[in-house]
């Protein structure tokens, strides 16, 4: 349950909170202030992202696109990705397997 996990600042204007955890999957909330960035990075986990609120410009591999509340997409394992928050909001990410580095 989310109450088991603290909200952690991961960068300027960005916080992360694990919402649910299992060895095979993890659900995580990321909250962004307007203008905050999710730095370009890659990881071996498959990631599904749901935009709960706000507007974001994402880069996944060679593609750049904008998403808003209600949008969702999948980031393949190993794909370099990141985002710029255009309007304050929240992303709900699912990772499989779980992100051990978030525990």
TrEMBL record:
Matching SUPFAM superfamilies: RmlC-like cupins
Coiled-coil blocks: none
Domain of life (superkingdom): Bacteria
InterPro entries: Bacilysin_H2HPP_isomerase (IPR052535), Cupin_2 (IPR013096), KdgF (IPR025499), RmlC-like_jellyroll (IPR014710), RmlC_Cupin_sf (IPR011051)
Stretches assigned to the Cupin type-2 domain: 30-84
Annotated Gene3D superfamilies: Jelly Rolls
Name of the protein in its database record: Cupin
Organism: Roseobacter cerasinus
């Amino acid at each position: 349950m989310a109450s088991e996990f603290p909200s952690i600042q991961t960068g300027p204007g960005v916080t992360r909170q694990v919402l649910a955890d299992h060895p095979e999957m993890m659900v995580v909330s990321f909250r962004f202030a307007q203008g905050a960035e999710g730095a370009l990075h890659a990881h071996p986990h498959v990631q599904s992202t749901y935009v709960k609120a706000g507007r974001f410009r994402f880069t996944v591999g060679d593609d750049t696109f904008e998403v808003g509340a209600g949008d969702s997409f999948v980031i393949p394992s190993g794909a370099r990705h990141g985002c710029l928050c255009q309007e304050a909001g929240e992303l709900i990410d699912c990772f499989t397997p779980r992100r051990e580095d978030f525990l």
